[in-house]
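Tutorial handout. Part one gives the primary structure; part two gives the three-dimensional structure as tokens.
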Amino acid sequence: MTAALALSTLAGIAPAHAHDALASTSPSDGQILTASPGRVSITLNNPPNTQLKGSNIIKVTAPDGHTVSSGDISVSGATLTTAADIDHPGKHTVQWRAVSADGHPIEGQFTFTFAGDPASTEAAMAPSVSTPAALATEPQGPETQASTPAASQTPDNTGLFIGVGAVLLILVAAGAYLIGRRAKAASGRTT
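Part two.
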């Protein structure tokens, strides 16, 4: 009986859902551009949550550290876009943060190089020393995920742990009930 109860409980546990992830970027990570794209965008595998104003962020930083992105983020389906006045040759860093449809924040960063005219390609390929500033509105806490590629982000297993805990609790309760019943039956026979 206890085994059947445990199996039926396990069968009712839904698998844990993975959070949304980055599907693509424009420009792509590591791309070398000879013309300014005028905008930078990220595309997620699902549309982001747009209910919280200012929670979706794309920040583009030039090689000298100044921000070249401007204006509000526009959202079209699963794609978030911001205007970017890219006029400095060199490696640009894009930091992004979005809120999944389930309310969990996801974030990351990528780079692209703006070579400008073909004569400046060699200068653009030289390593630049810059440390991009942290996103100004990004809260720091345990709920934020590390900046890792989408493929290496660890899925959330909270649902699985809750389900296993519930099964263990049911098994312990069933065992205690059976032991109590046997003890009661044994004490009834001895009197």
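Part three, for discussion. The beta strands are 22-26, 32-33, 39-44, 57-61, 69-76, 79-84, 90-99, 105-114. The first strand starts at residue 22 and ends at 26.
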